[in-house]
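Researcher: I've got a protein sequence and the SMILES for nicotinamide-adenine-dinucleotide. Could you write out the 3D structure of the bound complex as C-alpha cells? I'd like something to compare against our soaking experiments later this week.
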Amino acid sequence: MKPLLYNDEGIMKVTVIGGGGYVGLVTAVGLARLGHQVVGVDVNRQIVDVLSSGKSPIYEEGLEELLGKVLVESSLRFTTNIADGVSAAQVVLVAVGTPPHADGSPDLTALRSVTVDLARTIAPETIVAIKSTIPVGAVSEMQEAFKALGALDIEIVSNPEFLSEGSAVNDFFHPNRIVVGTTSERARRVMRELYAPFLKDESAFPLASLDISRNVPLVETSAESAQVIKYAANAFLATRVSFINEIAGICEQLGADVADVVEGLTMDPRIGHGYLSPGIGFGGPCLEKDLQALSYSAAIHGYQANFLDATLRRNDDQINHVVNRAIALCGGSVSGKRIGVLGLAFKAGTNDVRTSLSVRIIDRLYNLGASIAMHDPVAMEEAQVLLPSIDPAMTPYAVAENADLIMLLTDWPEYLVLDWSRISKMLRSKVVFDGRNALNPAICVAAGLRYYRVGKATS
Ligand SMILES: NC(=O)c1ccc[n+]([C@@H]2O[C@H](COP(=O)([O-])OP(=O)(O)OC[C@H]3O[C@@H](n4cnc5c(N)ncnc54)[C@H](O)[C@@H]3O)[C@@H](O)[C@H]2O)c1
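Model: Sure. Here is the predicted complex with nicotinamide-adenine-dinucleotide in place.
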C-alpha cells in the first residue's frame, strides 16, 4: 500500500524504544501514519506480541484502529530485539519510563540500560531523540556514556512530549508546539524532516485524508531549555489545579460556590480555562512526578523551589479534604459504612491508574474501615491489581447497592448520564459526593439525592 507522504524522499526510518508504552506507542503509530517506516522496540515480550496482533493494551480513543491500519500498511512493526530495530534507523526516539524514586528524583535506570543497548547496535551518525521526561544533565550523561562505549558521532536531542492521556492520538496529530533541544545543526535538520508534515503548509505535504495541524511552531533550543520547558509546563498545569482547589476550599468556608467563581474567573482571557476545574486534585503518571523531579533538580543545584513544594503539598491536602468530606457525609465515621465509587482511572479517556487519586482515596477509606464497591468503564483490571481487597462492581449501578454514600471520582461521560433515580432507590443513604463537579445537581436533587461537591459546603 502507498505511504501517505507526498514526497517519498520525506519517508524516514524511525525506531521508537519503549514503543509499547503510552508515549512510545502513540508516537510510533502516529509517525507510521504520517508515512514514516517505524519499528517499535519494547522489552516487554507480552506487549510486543499483543501489539503485533493489532490489539492495544492501552485504552486511547482511535489508537487501536490506527494501529491496525499501519500494521496492514506495513509502516509499523514491533520487536523486542533492539539490534533488529535500530541498525537501519535514521532517528531513534526513546520513550522509556522515568518513574520517581522515593526522594522525588527520577529513576533513569531504563534510560541507562537503553544507552548501553543502543551503543552496541546503533549506526554512526544516527540521531537519538529523547521523548522521555528527563532532568537536565541526563543528556550529557548519555552522550558521555556513548563515547565511553565507543558509539561515536551520535547526536542526542531532547524532544519532550506534551500529549495528554485521554486525548493522546488527537494530541499527536495536533501538537501546539514541537520542542527540539540540541545545538547540533545536523540533528535539527533531521528533526525538521521527521516532523515536516506538521511544520509546513498543506501544499508541501498534502497527506490525503489525514486531519493534522500545519505550520505548528517549532521551538529550537538547547537540550537544557527543552527539558525545563517540559518540566515547567507540567509544573504550571499542576499549580493551576492546586490553585483552584485552594479557592474551592476557601469557598466552602465562606459560603461561596466555586462553580460560579470559576465561571467568572475564566472569562478573563489572561486566565483562560485549562486546568481550573476544582476536584480531587491532580493524579496520573506525570504531574506529581515531574513536579517532584523539578524540585529535586533545583534543590541539588542549590535552589529551594518552595512554590513547587507548596503545590505538591496542596495536592495531598486535597485528598485529605475529600476523605474528610466522605467521613462527614457518613455521619462522622466511615467504619462499617458501604461506599460506592464511580471511576478509578486517573482521568476519563484512559485505563491508566498510575498515581490515580481515586485509588488513593479508596485505599484511605478502606483503611478507615469502609467497605467499598468500585467501578470503572475501562480500568477495572488495572485497578484490581492495586486494590485487590475492594469489591469490583460489574455495572455502575451495582456500586450503589445498599451504599451509604456514592462518590464520583472520575468524570467518565457515561457516568454523567446514569439513571440517578434508579441509583437513588438502591442507596441506603441517599447521598452523592461529586468529586469532579461534573454531575447535574438538579438531576441528582430531583432523584431524591442529597448532592455535594467540591467548593460548596451545602447540598
Ligand atoms: N504518559 C504520559 O501521559 C506522558 C506524557 C508526556 C511525557 N511522558 C513521559 O514519557 C516517558 C514515558 O512515559 P509512559 O507513560 O509512556 O511510560 P510507560 O511505562 O507507559 O512506557 C514505557 C515503555 O518502555 C518500555 N521499556 C522499559 N525499558 C525498556 C528498554 N530497556 N528497552 C525497550 N523498552 C523499554 C516498557 O516496557 C514500557 O512499555 C516518561 O518519561 C514520561 O514522563 C509521559
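Model: The chain is about 40% helix and 15% strand. The pocket of nicotinamide-adenine-dinucleotide is lined by residues 17-18, 20-24, 41-44, 47, 95-98, 110, 113-114, 131-133, 161, 163, 165, 285-286 (CB under 6 Å).
Researcher: Great, I'll pass this along to the crystallography team.
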